[in-house]
Amino acid sequence: MDFGGAGGPVYGQQGIADSGNTPGGRDSAASWVDSQGNLWLFGGYVPNEGFYNDLWFYTPSTGYWTWAGGPMGPGNLGTYGTQGVAAAGNVPDSRAISVSWTDSSGNFWLFGGLGTPQVSYQGILNDLWEYSPSSGLWTWQSGSNGSDAMGIYGSQGIPAVSNTPGSRYGAVSWIDSADNLWLFGGQCRWRPCRRLPIWPKRPLQ
User: Model pTM?
Assistant: First the structure.
């Protein structure tokens, strides 16, 4: 099925690579590279259409795109499910300008962004998601399923389950040799994030 006219996505059949498939033009999608060298793409924004939450991968050896999951078209809400539990129906809300990491086990991580929240108006997100390419399942790991959430800082240098960075988009991210996910700055609605501290997050094992 085609969306957005010329230059829009052509989905084909989910999970099936085809020469006619394409995610179409979009801005500020999240991306990863898997252990097989496939290029992955999630979400993004198309002017005059809205935010997407579809998941794609591109296989360089064949030159084909595959629609891997998520709903067709823009403006779709996600399905959070139970926090910490992977499920076939889970998918993040539509969004763009998120931050992403790949851990040493090959799992993809996604945090925040600007988009369409599950239980609120369009806004800025602070949810953290994990995607397993081997199982094809998303897991909502932490953060809010709404928008414009304030951060919970706790004590500086002391990890705690309740600690959560506030909603933001356009932050800087990296991963260290101990598999910690790091996050710095970004843009918030409630105040500039560029002066906020660095946040490490240890992926669940």
Answer: 0.88
